[in-house]
Amino acid sequence: MKRIFPRYRHLAAFTLTELIVAVSVLTLMITFVAQLVNNATLVTTYSRKHADADSQARLVFDRMAGDFASMPKRTDVDYLFSKQAGNDRMFFYSEAPAYYDGSASNLAMRSSLALLGYRINSSYQVERLGKQLNWGGASSTQPGSAVFLAYPAPTATTPKPTPLPESLLENNWAGAIGSAPNYDGTDADFHVLADQVCRLEFCFQMKDGTYVLDPTASGSPTVHSLKDVSAIVVGLVVLDAASQQIADIGKVSKVFDDLTAADLSANPPVLMEAHWRQQLLAPGFAQTAGIPQAAASQIRFYEKHFPLNPP
Predict the structure, then answer these.
(1) Strand order in the sheet with 190-194
(2) Chain segment 125-178, per-residue pLDDT in tens
(3) d(C-alpha 3, C-alpha 274), whole Å
């Protein structure tokens, strides 16, 4: 039997208008999802950069906290806190961990004191000096021993004489500390502590609560005494490794000004973090500094007070 098909029948299909609407909706959905993914990627990237900067600052501050806490608070040992045009430098004795380069057969001579230091090197990285000392050697004999302050006999005109130059840190550790005013020693016991910290500055909080650059009020850029100092305040500028690929790290380090006495005597005092943030938020900062805006937005500041026990 032959099957008879109708000449015409209706076939189910989308109209051209429906296809256009469907494609438009699909395009909008893809664009929306892509934007979500892109935003999530940006948030993740910024969060990772922020976490990198936080970890760098935490590493430096944690190490400094241990070093300062183990620093002997004595009036017969020298401290060297050098205020520089740019990155400051510091050297002091401490009972914190350090490298001992004495003979393995002479470990009994290893003392509990070490010569420590912090500085920003020529590659704009934080370096820490850690030189474990011994009990009996002279400072010129490695690994050397601590040198205590010596004073000339008082006279009627100078009842409180200053320490003899040969008893100061800067005149006993030329290889490690270097000489004034730069203190750019080249010692093998300097090691990079944080490679994303490009700026280091400090000031002092006195026992009366005020902040100063020179606790001795001598007008010298080099501080040798921490008398009446209640805390050392350290500020850091950090730029993550990814942002350093598109920015000149030297420019980032040099663009932020030093603190002034006027900053510290303001009411309230303007310390490093606030001082630098004012510069960063100034209109046209990135263009003036010659730093890409994408990198400038990732510059972060950190500041910490390190209390000192009274001597």
Answers:
(1) 190-194, 126-134, 110-120, 89-94, 80-82, 222-223
(2) 999 999 999 887 677 767 788 888 888 888 888 888 888 888 888 888 888 898
(3) 92
Report the pLDDT value the prediction gives residue 45, as an integer from 0 to 100. 60
Contact yes or no for 85/258 (Cβ under 8 A): yes
Q: Angle CA(17)–CA(22)–CA(28) in degrees, nearest 5? A: 130
Average pLDDT, the chain: 87
Q: Give the model's pLDDT for residue 104.
A: 58
Query: Which residues pair with residue 184 across a beta bridge?
Result: none
* Prediction pTM value: 0.83
Question: In whole angstroms, what is the distance from residue 86 CA to residue 199 CA?
Answer: 8
pLDDT digits (tens, 9 = 90+) for 237-273: 999 988 899 999 999 999 999 999 999 999 999 999 9
Instruction: Kindly give, in sequence order, each residue whose CB lies less than 8 Å from that of residue 119, ignoring residues fewer than 6 positions away.
Output: 87, 89, 90, 126, 127, 129, 183, 190, 200
Q: Which two tokens stand for residue 287?
A: 């263009």
- CA 252 from centre of chain: 13
Express each pLDDT in 177-234 by its tens digit.
988 889 998 888 899 999 999 999 999 999 999 999 999 888 888 888 898 999 999 9
The tokens for 201 are 């500055």
Q: Give the start-to-end residue ranges of the domains of the chain.
A: 44-307
CA distance linking residue 200 with residue 182, whole number of Å: 15
Question: How many angstroms separate the CA atoms of 272 and 263, rounded?
Answer: 9
- Of 97, 150, 91, which is closest to residue 117 (Cα–Cα)? 91
List the structure tokens of 122: 């020529």
SS3 at position 108: helix
The partner residues of 129 in beta bridges, in order of sequence, read: 117, 190
Residue 205, phi then psi, degrees to nearest 5: -100, 125
Taking CA atoms, 262 is separated from 97, 256, 280, in Å, by 37, 16, 19
